[in-house]
Design goal:
Chain B: One of its GO terms (cellular component) is cytoplasm. The complex is a heterodimer of chains A (517) and B (259). Chain A is an alpha+beta fold and 517 residues long. Chain A has helices at 29-34, 51-61, 84-87, 92-96, 127-130, 148-155, 165-169, 187-196, 212-223, 232-248, 302-317, 320-335, 342-349, 356-362, 387-395, 449-459, 463-479, 481-488, 506-513; strands at residues 21-25, 38-47, 76-77, 109-112, 119-122, 135-142, 174-180, 256-263, 266-274, 378-383, 400-405, 419-420, 423-424, 442-448. Among the domains of chain A are: 38-99 and 131-181, Alpha-Beta Plaits (2-Layer Sandwich); 214-281 and 295-448, Cytidine Deaminase, domain 2, CATH 3.40.140.10. Chain B contains eight helices and five strands. The two termini of chain B are 31 Å apart. The chains are: A alpha+beta (517), B alpha/beta (259). At the A-B interface, α11, α12, α13, α15 and α17 of A face α1, α3, β2, α4 and α5 of B. The structure holds zinc ion (ZN) (2 copies).
Chain lengths: 517, 259
């Protein structure tokens, strides 16, 4: 433990040395799981004057199109707005009927379209290049809804593909195209998909998480707090100070927590807590019981302590009905024959202040009477909380969580599991936003801007690669889970490390990476 | 009312009333499925055979007794005991209403009793008996404390961390996993919860009737519409057998209700 006295949290006295940090909203579990799904669709090129007609045919004659929402994709796309690889796709019809048609080997010929009396010069392939700005590609439907030959036969019934003059200028070519299955969750993602798949709209919605406008509003409130308010930087520095103080006393291993209530852009700091896992239990008479440097009393995690302090504050300011209800619940303990050694209980739960800084905020009765748990409060953390603490935040109904350093081996909030350029990014629980649970909250990583750019570059990989990465992880977990663990314990796994921490030797950083925060 | 309802750890109302929504019949969520295929062998064990069952039922009976006491005091009926060398060293019921702290679950209350007298490492030789499967938070805490094994009554289909919703006890992680055995007095654990919900609902109903009478008297109105308890809050007594947790375990489990 003494070995951990080297500063994990950056010293609060040197804020000027902190790199500029910014909030990066975490992906939700569903965003990670479904956000990169693709679907195969049929597409066909036609003169734009026939576009609406063919669309009507498609809508009337192909069933089941409502089952899959593709509203985020343009139904019609100009050839020039499609990625080159889509334009260059093989014509599947030609492949299906692999007999070369006579005119294709004849550069120029005089033909009569079967059902018309008009003779015309026609070069089937060339008009597209020479004189046709007015074609459109129509996204027809998922390939699961209609077979290629059925679609081919259907379209051949209608202009321009039925026998007519146009049919010779625009022979039916059906392409199978890969498109994103779900709506994009950011403009950047929409742009990327437009470049790589099919013209894609960003409609300012996110089916897998908080509404983008809500996220943007929260980011604005936290990044540019009003004159008397508290922003993310100040709250985070306070969490770091709390962490530093308990660490200096030998109680903590570096994490800290600040909890804030924000109403109409006025913020109250309700609780500040540092990690205190090594504060001696009453039963051990001053000796800590740690088997190694970082375990200790799990209730001493900063999040658990801060949540406990909120509860105690609520009890303190409760109205009579609420406090008598709590007192009745307390008596139930006696009815159940449970001991009431308060000192021992407080020593275990560590939900009272242990430093002057913690005391300063705990002492203030600045909490509204009869509020519910930590409903919609803001939680600022030096580190991503462990699974226990993440679920404690869910149970407590918090509104927003912002953490500074990802804990890739123990964290419960990150939903991503894949590796990027900076290494594995987490366990994948994503407890901040799970549909299975009855409460969700917004969550941000508060990281350096440089890292943000590196992270984005790492994540901008084609869709297929994500699955590939996961498959690779599965394989390694199958054969040797320890090997996977060994990979994740590389020092690179903590992407948002303040420079002050780089003085730690690798062994220390590595062992801290496996610590529950 | 609002507090006790929302902070109650476990909630199993739909566990048997509607088989299609029962989580016991749906495959476990995929939290780690692509990374952790090895977790699944652990899941069927939740309702697998419990070695030396009668011995463990003896301690589960004590956990049920705790839950009964809690119910008698209008507290969420979840009870637990921690057992070391055949001796109960910690007991717990839900403490959220007393502490206004939504994390003060029965398991934590029991741990506090242990740690008042014993060093923390005793937990590596200690087993937990709890009437309802530990939630995700408690499942993680127990693993970090190094609990030896967990025995529980019924699944927690809202927050369960030992098979009900997630498999925190068995997932890949830095701490050693622990074994879990579910289904000990499962029906009794479920009935305790149902009795609690009916009881709470009747209280709410009586309160609503009282309020309605006052309103009608003061405002000289004719009878206000009688509030009735919701139908799904009636005490149901039939409990479907455990069908399966893992689809592959389906065949072997349907005919042998556990617990
Ligand atoms: Zn924690
Ligand atoms: Zn719990």
């Amino acid at each position: 433990m003494a070995a951990r006295a080297d500063s994990k949290a950056p010293s609060p006295t040197e804020p000027a040395e902190l790199p500029v940090r910014q909030m990066i909203h975490l992906k939700t579990k569903e965003e990670c799981r479904l956000g990169n799904e693709t679907i195969q669709v049929w597409a066909v090129e036609m003169p734009s004057k026939h576009a609406e007609g063919i669309l009507k045919v498609v809508k009337d004659r192909i069933e089941g199109q409502d089952a899959v929402d593709l509203q985020h994709l343009r139904r019609f796309a100009k050839p020039k707005s499609l990625p080159k690889h889509v334009l260059g796709k093989r014509d599947l019809i030609k492949e299906m009927y692999a007999i070369p048609r006579a005119w294709e080997s004849t550069p120029l010929s005089v033909m009569q379209a079967p059902s018309t009396a008009v003779w015309e010069y026609s070069v089937p392939a060339k008009p597209r290049i020479n004189h046709k700005p007015q074609t459109l590609y129509l996204l027809i439907c998922g390939t699961n809804l209609i077979s290629l030959s059925e679609l081919h036969n259907l379209l051949l019934e209608y202009a321009p593909f039925c026998s007519s003059a146009d049919s010779w200028a625009y022979p039916l070519e059906i392409k199978e195209v890969t498109v994103p299955r779900q709506a994009p969750t950011s403009p950047a993602q929409a742009d990327m998909w437009t470049d790589n798949y099919w013209p894609t709209f960003y409609r300012k919605t996110n089916p897998f998480g908080a509404h983008p406008a809500t996220i943007a509003k929260a980011e604005e409130d936290l990044s540019h707090p009003g004159y008397e308010s508290v922003g993310v930087e100040e709250a985070m520095i306070l969490a770091e100070r709390a962490a530093h103080e308990t660490q200096a006393m030998g109680y903590g291993v570096g994490p800290g927590c600040t909890i804030i209530e924000r109403v109409d852009n006025k913020a109250e700091i309700l609780a500040v807590a540092g990690d205190a896992r090594h504060k001696a239990l009453p039963s051990t008479a001053g000796m800590t019981d740690a088997q190694d440097a970082c375990s200790g009393n799990v209730m001493g995690h900063a999040v658990m302590r801060a949540i406990g302090m909120i509860g105690r504050k609520r009890l303190r300011v409760a109205s009579h009905p609420v406090s008598s209800k709590a007192a009745k619940a307390e008596r139930t303990f006696e009815n159940c024959g449970l001991d009431h050694d308060e000192k021992a209980r407080d020593g275990f739960f560590l939900d009272l202040p242990v430093t002057p800084l913690e005391e300063e905020y705990f002492a203030q009765d600045n909490i509204k009477p009869d509020g519910y748990l930590c409903l919609r409060l803001e939680v600022f953390l030096t580190h991503e909380p462990c699974i226990m603490c993440s679920m404690a935040l869910v149970h407590s109904r918090v509104g927003k969580v912002i953490f500074s350093e990802r804990m890739t081996q123990t964290g419960g909030l990150t939903a991503e599991m894949v590796s990027n350029d900076t290494g594995p990014v987490g366990l994948g629980y994503g407890l901040c936003w799970r549909k299975e649970l009855n409460w969700q909250f917004m969550c941000w990583e508060y990281a350096q801007q440089e890292e943000e750019k590196a992270g984005k570059a790492g994540k901008a990989i084609p869709v297929g690669n994500v699955d590939h990465h996961q498959a690779t992880s599965t394989a390694s977990a199958n054969t040797n889970p320890d090997q996977h663990l060994a990979l994740t314990s590389a020092p690179t796994s903590a992407p948002a490390k303040p420079t002050a921490m780089l003085s730690d030797d690798n062994a220390n950083v590595s062992s801290f990476a496996s610590t529950h925060v | 009312m609002a507090i006790s309802e929302q902070t109650s750890i476990p909630s199993t109302p739909p566990i048997t009333s509607n088989p299609t929504t029962s989580t016991t019949t749906s495959p476990p969520p995929d939290c780690h499925d692509s990374l952790m295929p090895s977790q699944f062998p652990a899941v069927p064990a939740v309702f697998g055979p419990v070695p030396n069952r009668a011995y463990h039922e003896g301690f589960m009976r004590k956990a049920i007794e705790m839950a009964e006491l809690a119910l008698a005091s209008d507290e969420t009926p979840v009870g637990c005991v921690f057992v070391h060398n055949g001796e109960v060293i910690g007991r717990g019921i839900n403490g959220t209403n007393a502490s206004l702290n939504g994390t003060r679950h029965a398991e934590f209350v029991g741990l506090a009793e242990i740690m008042a007298k014993h060093p923390q490492r005793i937990l590596t030789q200690t087993d937990l008996y709890v009437t309802v499967e530990p939630c995700i938070m408690c499942a993680s805490a127990l693993r970090q404390y190094g609990i030896r094994a967990v025995y529980f009554g019924c699944l927690n289909d809202r927050f369960g961390g030992c098979g009900g919703v997630m498999q925190i006890h068995a997932d890949r992680g830095v701490d050693p996993p622990y074994p879990v055995y579910g289904g000990l007095f499962r029906e009794e654990a479920i009935m305790l919860l149902r009795r609690f919900y009916v009881q709470e609902n009747e209280k709410g109903w009586r309160q609503a009737m009282k309020t309605a009478r006052e309103v009608s008297l003061t405002k000289r109105l004719f009878a206000a519409p009688e509030p009735k308890p919701k139908k799904n809050r009636e005490l149901k007594t039939e409990i479907l057998p455990v069908t399966n947790v893992n689809p592959t375990a389906n065949l072997t489990r349907t005919s042998t209700p556990a617990g």
